[in-house]
Amino acid sequence: MPELPEVKVIVQGLGRRTLGETIGDVRVRWPHSIDRPDVETFMEQLCGQTIREVRRRGKFVIVDLSQECLLIHLRMTGQLLVCDGPDEALEEDTHVHVILLFASGRVLYFRDMRKFGRFYLVDDADEIVGDLGPEPLAQDFTARTLEKLFEGRRARVKSLLLDQRVLAGLGNIYTDESLWKAGIHPCRPVDDLGFEEIERLHGSIRQVLRSAVENRGTTLRSYRDPNNRRGRNQEQLAVYGREGEACPRCGQTIVRDVVAGRGTHYCPTCQEQSAHT
Predict the structure, then answer these.
(1) Which of 8, 56, 57, 59 is catalytic?
(2) DSSP secondary structure string, the chain?
(3) Residue 158 annotated to the active site
(4) Which residue out of 197, 230, 262, 268 is catalytically annotated?
(5) What is the pLDDT of residues 139-190, one digit of tens each?
(6) Which of 2, 5, 134, 186 is catalytic?
(7) pLDDT at 275 over 50
(8) Residue 148 among the catalytic residues
C-alpha cells in the first residue's frame, strides 16, 4: 500500500502534470471504484471542473477543484498515471477502472489490480480526512506531540503508529523501519516508553519518511509515480522484507512476526523486547 512518501511523490507528480487542467470527460469502467456520490453524478459533476491544487493528507491524494474536492485513496495497488494523450496499452488494460480526459488532451488513468482503491467527490475534504491524526512531517509535530498522542494508552507501539487516527500516513513499511532506527521493539506498550525513547522514535519517523521521499518512494510490487517510474527506496530498507538477513547495525538475523495483524520485521538484538511485555 502506498504510504506517506509514495503519496507525496504522486501528489508532486500530479501537480506538475495536471495543475490548471480542465476535466473534459470521465469514464468509469468499474463502478465500485467510486465511493461517493453515485457514479452518474460523479461523472456529471467532475466534467468542466478545473484542478486548482493537488495536495496530500495522510495516505489520501486530495485534488482541489474549481467547485468541489476529489479525494483518492490508492489502498494496496492503486496507480495514477498521466499521459500526454490516450495510451493504447492502458486503454486496453483491464485493471484501468477510471479515466479522466482533460481538455488539453492529457489523460489520467487510475489502475488498480486489487480493486480496493476509492474515489470520493465531496464539498469539503474534511468529510473524509477530518478524523486523521497529525502529520508526522509537519513543522509543529514534535517529540512532545508524540508523547501526548501516547498518553493514557497501553497499546503496543506498532499498533498505535499504524492507527491513522493517531498519526496520519505511516503504514507497515515505514513503521518497521522507524522502530528499527529508534531501537524499539514493535510490541513495546507505549506506556513503557520513556521520553528519551519517544524523542528517538520521533526523530526516526521523520528521518525515515524524508529519506523515502528523497528516494521517490518504495517499490516492492505495484507502486509507480504518475510518470510510471519505480521508486528507489527499496534499496535502502534496513529490516522490512529482510527476514533471515543480517541486521545492518549489529549483524543479528532479522526476524518476521505478526503484530497488529501485520507482518512485522525487526532485529531481536537491536530492538530488545522490554521485560514489561
Answers:
(1) 59
(2) ---HHHHHHHHHHHHHHHTT-BEEEEEESSGGGEEES-HHHHHHHHTT-BEEEEEEETTEEEEEESSSEEEEE-TTTEEEEEESS--HHHHH-TTEEEEEEETTS-EEEEEESS---EEEEES-THHHHTT----TTSTT--HHHHHHHHTT--SBHHHHHH-TTTSSS--HHHHHHHHHHHT--TT-BGGG--HHHHHHHHHHHHHHHHHHHHTT---SSS---TTSPPPSGGGG-SSTT-TTSBPTTT-PBPEEEEETTEEEEE-TTTTPPPTT-
(3) no
(4) 262
(5) 999 999 999 999 999 999 999 999 999 999 999 999 999 999 999 999 999 9
(6) 2
(7) no
(8) no
